[in-house]
Automatic annotation (TrEMBL):
CDD domains: MTHFR. Pathway: One-carbon metabolism; tetrahydrofolate interconversion; Amino-acid biosynthesis; L-methionine biosynthesis via de novo pathway. NCBIfam families: fadh2. It holds the Pfam family MTHFR. GO terms for molecular function: methylenetetrahydrofolate reductase [NAD(P)H] activity. InterPro entries: FAD-linked_oxidoreductase-like (IPR029041), Mehydrof_redctse-like (IPR003171), MTHF_reductase_bac (IPR004620). It comes from the Bacteria. Gene3D superfamilies: 3.20.20.220. This is Methylenetetrahydrofolate reductase. It comes from Luteimonas rhizosphaericola. SUPFAM superfamilies: FAD-linked oxidoreductase (SSF51730).
Length: 274
């Protein structure tokens, strides 16, 4: 069976916390290698991230990786957070630049994710296994695709152990990206990020923001299904499972699922792959 990891966002209310507990209990039967927890823009949910990571580690007994960004933060703030995660027992991090919320001025002491990785290695050596973000369809702010690949390589040169991609629905984008970075000498595992489809309107909004392309034929079929939630779920699970199978057959080393704190859409994909 292909190794899997699951990504969650930090719950803020008791109801959301209970929902995450149920989701984690259901998904743990798939024996994830690790789980990760996102952060919100501008540090607003950093304490929720730390609290969720603590619960995933201590209450659920899972290897849990906080996502950590450098944008808008000072060296001292990031150093304190790293110490806090280490004290909690974290051995993994997902290190990102993040995005500044509009209107927020100061870019922070560390400008790009590569600077953050250098900082983590400087302070903690090899203690943390560090994953970084990768963009098979190019990061939306990148100057051009080739420059973006070089910037990706800089993160690996700074000490990243592996990468998780932005989600995509076109397997060739992933294969091409892997070939291109291997040609630049990058050897770390590049794990596809998989977004199961549950709410298509929400997915279209996310995709516009992060530059992920939804193929036209998928949009057209989804639109034709209108409000038929059952048909959308079935079709979504079929195409994402087929994507995963192609990725695994083509050499993807693992799959990282963006769960949005829901168990069923991810389980539907994994059930079709069994
Ligand atoms: P970087 O690798 O620093 O790159 C950002 C941009 O800068 C790219 O366009 C790159 O080409 C360019 N660049 C890099 N270095 C240089 C340089 N030296 N000179 C000029 N340009 C340069 N966001 C959240 O808010 N919370 C999360 O929890 C979160 N989790 C994520 C998890 C994954 C797996 C992924 C793929 C993304 C996640 N994001 C998250 C989104 C991420 O924060 C954004 O995509 C952000 O815009 C870029 O972060 P990065 O680490 O990829 O940046």
């Amino acid at each position: 069976m292909i190794p899997v990891s699951f990504e969650f966002y930090p719950p803020k209310t008791d109801d959301q916390r209970e929902q995450l507990d149920r989701t984690v209990s259901r998904l743990r039967s798939h024996a994830p290698d690790y789980v990760s927890c996102t952060f919100g823009a501008g540090g607003s949910t950093l304490s929720y991230t730390a609290d969720t990571v603590r619960r995933l580690l201590q209450d659920h007994g899972l290897d849990a990786a906080p996502h950590l960004s450098c944008v808008g933060g000072t060296r001292a703030e990031i150093a304190e957070l790293l110490d806090q995660y280490r004290a909690l027992g974290c051995r993994r991090l997902v290190a990102l630049r993040g995005d500044l919320p509009s209107g927020m001025g100061h870019p922070g002491d560390l400008r790009y994710a590569a600077d953050l990785i250098g900082f983590i290695r400087e302070r903690h050596g090899a203690h943390f296994h560090v994953e970084v973000g990768a963009y098979p369809e190019m990061h939306p702010q990148a100057e051009d695709a080739l420059t973006d690949l070089r910037h990706f390589k800089a993160k690996v040169d700074a000490g990243a152990d592996g990468a998780i991609t932005q989600y995509f629905y076109n397997a060739d984008a992933y294969f091409h990206f892997v070939d291109a970075v291997r040609a630049l000498g990058v050897e770390v595992p590049i794990v596809p990020g998989i977004m199961p489809i549950s709410n298509f309107a929400q997915l279209r909004r996310f995709s516009e923001q992060c530059g992920a392309e939804i193929p036209r034929w998928i949009t057209k079929k989804m639109q034709a299904m209108g409000d038929d939630a059952g048909a959308i779920r079935e079709f979504g699970a079929d195409i994402v499972a087929r994507l995963c199978r192609r990725l695994v057959d083509g050499g993807a080393p693992a799959l990282h699922f963006y769960t949005l704190n829901l168990a069923k859409p991810t389980q539907a994909v994994l059930a079709r792959m069994a």
